[in-house]
Amino acid sequence: MSVDKNSIEITIPLMQGGTNLHFQNIAYQVRHQKEDKLLLKNISGTFRTGRLTAVLGPSGAGKSTLLNVLSGFKTQGVSGNIIVNNEIIDRQRYRQLVAYTAQDVTLLPNITLRENLHYAADLKLATNVPLAHKVEIVNGVIALLGLQKCAHNQAQVLSGGEKKRLSIGLELVSNPAIMFFDEPTSGLDSVSSFQVISYMKDLARQGRCVISVIHQPSSELLELFDDIYVVVDGRCMYQGSLDELIPTFAEAGFHCPPYYNRADFVLKIASQYDSKCGEVEKLMVKSEKSVSASMNLSIQREYDSTEFLVEGRGPQYPISWWNQFTTLTRRTTLGTVRNPQLMGLRFFGHVLFGFTIGFVFHNVGDDASKVLSNISLLIAFLMFITFANAMTVILTFPLEMAVFVREHKSNYYSVSAYYFSKLVADFPWMLSGVTAFQLIMYFLSGQLYETDRVLMFWGICALFGWLAQVYGLIAGCLFPIEVSPFIVPASIIPALLFSGFFIRYNELLDFFKPLTLVSYFRYGFEGLVQATYGHNRTEVGCSEIFCYYRKTSKILEALHMEPNRYWTDVLGLSIWIAFLHIVLYLSLRLRLRWNR
User: Where are the transmembrane segments (predicted)?
Assistant: First the structure.
């Protein structure tokens, strides 16, 4: 098959052999307000290869829930069997056969359409697939879905229809045998909707089993489908070909008026469902018996339904952990470089504020008469590093979380590969911003020019920037973007109060003193004070006749700090960073569990 307009050869291979999907007695139960609610009620059915199937039903009938379960995205609270070509397979093998495109697919905004497909190919195709073959597959997907004109556009400027087709292409690169789509036409006009469903029809004709939830399709759109599966109240009301839909309903006493949209007619009947409505109930019972009888002829043996998609022993991902890590690191770095807001806040914001605070506190560092101002500078320094590095990732990470959840569920990569790639890709940008800010501020404010002291000061700043960035990642992972910008400042204030700047350690009530040991601001503030006035520094210059704080021992005594605690402060910050890294990893796991 080829596209004449651009003479591009489509290299997506046809499926060898058919893949028929049977699902038997699928039940899905959730806990809602201390009560168990059954969303799918022992529903069964068959989706055949080479045919495009529409899943219809009124709102709340269980259409999307059925697709989530059949795609393997939801496994908790599910019982029943999924049978592929008369065989029950484990979760790993099944996820390699299946592709699922949700209603709203979140994309990384700064990655182009072609790059998105290339990264998907790198993650979903085996390592032994040559690069040239991956390029051919990507070109074939772009041609098949008619995306040549926008191939080099970033995802954030794509139209709704182009994003829908790109979401299809992301799954198509691995040549799946079974494809699920949840309302692929939502938010699209009639022309774009027809194009998307036409592409899905082509995918089915190539030998795939293609299933799509569709919401109130037009008559023209409905004609593209081969089979119809009607869901009502978590049960099957009809399964069969489109041509047999109206005759089947007529036999049950429901007659469709001439020139009436068949989908609207079915939805009108389905919305009348009630346990007291005998005709609709009879239709559903008849349909369920017909489905069961058909399935018994197709399936040659009985299967135990106690375990749904059991774990297998084979490899879960097509490429190694290291290849996942390097690919994700390249993609994250590219997206960060192309994000002017993030880069501007992270680097140029540090530089601008470094000059600002440096000129405001000009030459206060080596003047004993200005020690209190210099101490204030140190705490302001830490506060800026915290907010500048935490808030920038808070504004971008929630969007990445949606991409992470989708890609992990689609077997792109492991949690640990994403976790380490995110840390490695973001670390240089954080470090460059903090370093630029520290050097500018350090020399403008007139701190002591000693190499070891500069390095000690930089060490505390780098550790604090690292801590703040991981802190922001945790907040962006666990909370939506509307909430996290308020959570971070509110949660930082207690640590700031016990830093030793606002109230000295020995002035605290005995009840509060242990809290200074768990305040990361205490270790940061004390570390900067030690780097500035400790480390064998005995005196500070004085521009007046008498300076009370000329002796550095007086400064440390006034702050209730012991000398030579720099490495203790480094250890305290390191422990906090290690702890937050563990919390971040567990947060990623928890985020996935919320979506199971």
Answer: 347-365, 377-402, 423-444, 456-479, 486-505, 566-588
The range of the structural domain enclosing residue 271 comes to 21-275
Of the listed ranges 183-197, 239-253, 305-319, 554-568, the one predicted with least confidence:
305-319
Judge if 64 and 211 occupy the same domain.
Answer: yes
Between the two ends of the chain, the Cα-to-Cα distance in Å is 39
Q: Which amino acid is at 224?
A: L
Examine residue 306 and state whether it is found in any structural domain, yes or no.
no
Task: Please report the pLDDT score of residue 302 as a whole number.
Answer: 55
One-letter amino acid at 563 equals P
Domains held by the chain: number: 2
Q: Is the pTM of this model over 0.70?
A: yes
Q: Based on the fold, state whether residues 352 and 253 are members of the same structural domain.
A: no
DSSP track, 479-529: S-TTTHHHHHHHHHHHHHHTSSSSS-GGGS-TTTGGGGGG-HHHHHHHHHH
Q: What are phi and psi of 26, to 5 degrees?
A: -80, 120
Q: Are the beta carbons of 388 and 345 closer than 8 angstroms? A: yes
Instruction: Indicate if 350 and 221 belong to the same structural domain.
Output: no
- The residue among 225, 246, 275 that closes a domain is 275
Residues 143 and 258 in one domain: yes
**413/552 same-domain check:** yes
Q: Using DSSP bridges, classify how beta strands 98-101 and 178-182 pair: parallel, antiparallel or unpaired.
A: parallel
- Are 50 and 207 in contact by the 8 Å Cβ rule? The answer is yes
